[in-house]
Design brief:
heterodimer; A: 288 residues; mainly alpha; ABC transporter involved in vitamin B12 uptake, BtuC; two-stranded antiparallel sheet; B: 288 residues; 12 helices; 2 strands; globular
Amino acid sequence: MDILPQLILNSIIAGAIYTLVALGFNFIYGATKFFNLAHGIMAAIGGYAVFYFTKTVGLNMYVAIILGIALAGLVGFGLDKFIYLPLRKRKASNMVLLVASLGAMTAMQALIAILFSSRFKTLTENVGTQKLFTIFGGIITQTQLIILLSAAVIMASLVVMLYKTQFGKSVRAISDDEEVARIVGIHTNKIIGTVFFIGSAITGFTGILIGFDVGIEPTMGLNLLLKGVIASIIGGVGNIYGGVLGAFLLGFLENFGIWKLSGEWKDAIAFALLIVFLIFRPRGIINK
Amino acid sequence: MEYLIHLSILFSIYAILGVSLNLVIGYAGLLSVTHAAFYGIGAYTTAIFLTKSNIGFFSSLILGIAIAVVISLLIGIILSKFKGDYYALGTFGFNAIIFAIFLNWQNMTRGSLGIPGISRPELFDIDFENNLNFLILAVILLILIYFSSRFVINSSFGRVLKAIREDETAIAVFGYNTLYFKLLIFIISAAMAAVAGSLYASYITFIDPSSFQLTESMFILTIIILGGLANLRGSILGALFLILLPEILRFVGFPSDIEAQMRQMVYGIVLIILMLYRPQGFIGEYKL
């Protein structure tokens, strides 16, 4: 069997997943300018919410997915309201916010592990009955196809929202200079709250998709987040297109890297890429 | 009694880690989250030499320090290009890369199987199989490291570090080569972490990569932020508090899996509360 088409396909799927995380992360970073390490945990929240609502409560899958997305968004909104907003009002440094988000991530990850145990779980009912498609000799599952489509749709909607709506204009104004935005009468705290909701909801949705594709575990958030952050930075942090570019670059490099090395080197490859970029091109590919 | 000695040994190890990390974060103002990597280097050096050769604990301790010095020199040179939260992100990366090396360098580290059967130190006729004797050794090393750290920060070298933390440009204008100062303190701190690692490996007699993950670096960070940055006594206090606090959970009688997660949750919540209400910790002299 020729391995190349499958490798390319896997890279594209990984790229799409990283794109989704990077989109949410970049969206929030653009407005707040700090590394929100608790962002990845929203994926776990979304995934576990769907697990709970379908397997324990017994709700319809689509209802559960909507509830999961909403829950992830609400948790992100709550984090901003009760932790980041008070800190921002006190003019806390970026590092204080970073450490606070680290605490939030650790606490929520542990909470999920307590509630659902740290064992690996899958959202699909019967593994192995997924529809498979063959594209240029590579195999792709139905879920993976949905991941690809979602990444494209969400990215397009985010761009439309940012550049065509009043809300998007406000977000971009805050991203340029929060203080000036406030002076001209934009309710910056309200807008940032909404940004947190949307960004977190996107990541929650990503977590659900991953849950259907491979499965969920409490620690999935940190790993995803780091990939999302790396994608954002190598692409150009705070820039939507940059994040997408970085995500696909990362996806390809990781998958082609483990072609020759063992799979456990994946994370090391990602971080090595990050460090190379931090040294030679700290502003990313798309230089703002 | 045996249990108290066990806790005291753990406390000594974490106090060493806290004091040494405080040199970098508290005094030089560099948010490093890679301390567990150097801790692991010390632990693995001791583990490998004690199981594969008969050079003895103290020689392996020195070798561990030497390797940590070389690696921290290389990492420090790269990190010296970064500032603020990018610095933190870079250190994340190095922790992940070194963790991947522990996990994948199978013929040396045995990967995720870990290294069992590490022997206790041998010196004259002292029996270090006895935990009380081991505790005395750990405390002696802690005292040595505490006082050498105090010597470093009270020297003119330490004053320059604090000046760099407050305003790097200003101190550079006076003709100080700030790169050299930051690099040196990073190396000193890494060497001390390696000592803690050697102690840990020899005490527990078994190590595997999971003890040296990013989460461990975050735990050490919690210790020094809780105790207070730029205060060495604070780090000792922080280690004492965070080693003892979760022991209360043990008496409540949770199953061990849940207890470990509860511990993580406590650490996370402690970080959030500190950032919100007391960013300088118990007795800190510097805020992030």
